[in-house]
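[INFO] parsing input record for GNAT family N-acetyltransferase
[DEBUG] input buffer:
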Amino acid sequence: MIRTAAPADVPVIHEMVRELAEYEKALHEANATEEQLREALFGERPAAFAHIAETEDGEVAGFALWFLNFSTWRGVHGIYLEDLYVRPALRGGGHGKALLTELARICVERGYERLEWSVLNWNTPSIDFYRSLGARPQDEWTVYRLTDGALKSLGA
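[DEBUG] output buffer:
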C-alpha cells in the first residue's frame, strides 16, 4: 500500500499538492511547479522525500512529503511532515494511517526522535485522526513565517 515515490510520480504528486491547497482554501498560494518538485525530490541533492499510498488496484490514493529537521535538545534528526494528503473518495481506507506508520517506522529505524507536522486549526477531521494515533498538539508554540515582501525586505 505504501511505497517510496519515484520520478514518474511527480505529476500526480503535483496534482495532489494542488488538491490539498484547494482543500485548505489556499490554492492561490500553491505556485510550485512539477519541475521544482522533481528537483526537490530527485535532484542532485534532494531536500525532500515522498511516499505514495496506493489502493490494491494500484490507484494513487495519497502521499506524504517530508524532510529532515534537527532537534538541538535531543541532538538528533527528526522528520517534519510537510504534506499528508489522501484523496477524498479514498479516505477511511487506512491510507493516511499507513503513510504515518511508514514515517514513524523510518524514525524508529534511523534513531530519529520526533515526527512533527502542522495542521490548520479548523481542520477537525484531521485533528481527530491525529489524536487517535496518539499525536498531541504543541500549543505552547506559535509558528511564524516570513515570505514575499517581508522576506525580501529583511534579506536585502
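[INFO] Strands lie at 2-4, 49-54, 60-71, 76-86, 115-117.
[INFO] shutting down worker
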